Amino acid sequence: MTFEELKPGDHLRVIAPSGKIREPLSVETGLDIWRSQGYQISLTSGYDRSWGYFAGTDSDRRRQLLDAIGDDYSRGILCARGGYGATRLLEGLSIADIPPSTNPKFLIGFSDITALLWALSRQENILGIHGPVLTTLAQEPDWAIARLFDYLAGKPLKPLHGDGWGGGKVRGRLFPGNLTVATYLLGTPHQPDLTNAILAFEDVNEEPYRLDRMLTYWRTIGAFEGVLGIALGRFSQSGSPFNSPGDFSVEQVLRDRLFDLNIPIVANLSFGHDGPNAILPVGLQVELDGDRGILTWPTNSPSY
């Protein structure tokens, strides 16, 4: 399915499928940036609710999601923030529950939103974009904001450059996301088929030993089998005052757990928390050059 570019006047819906909104001003600032592009924005009923650390009960947040997907008038779904809670919306959710829509739409978010980006990647009328949520958009540098809006307007994505760890060059479908959230999708009905995939991982506030544990789990259950390459973004806030001299760093863990997979790997790409978060479309064909350290999009149009 081909997704037509967005145009000024197109309608977008805001949902809060994860944590409750703790910084309303940052949401408003993000909305102002979207509106400055000429888009019409509507706030889905209940997006500002609070239930514990969630933006409403599971049923409230699931209703937000399904209403936004089924809205034939809307061209896109903007997630207000991450936090925690999107995975809970998938419990008991089947393909039959996803409402049909005659209007294909973009779903934009990252971090905890990984659960929705990956679970809905099989829906032909939804194109996930791993990118800033409303609360983080204003923190992005100008080039990253321009990258988001240029892509939605139909312009080709520029390559991302990082540090190549070798392994040659491959093409495959890109599945970007938060490593922790993605790990907890493994073995569930919502795990996408990762055969011939290129994974793109980032994370925040995870100590090296916890990253080690997650990647070891991927290895132990054979989840890397069929994966063609790995792109690594930012793993921020990983330091701990309890680390002892000689403990492994994040990079040492990543190299130890990934390098012997003998597939192309590119590290230190500009996406993730606490820094530029370059958008990464979900499920589209990309080329990863592990020798030159480049992630590129061989086709320009956002289509499957």
TrEMBL record:
Residues 171-288 form the LD-carboxypeptidase C-terminal domain. Keywords: Carboxypeptidase, Hydrolase, Protease, Serine protease. CDD domains: Peptidase_S66. It holds the Pfam family Peptidase_S66. Residues 13-131 form the LD-carboxypeptidase N-terminal domain. Belongs to the peptidase S66 family. This is Peptidase U61 LD-carboxypeptidase A.
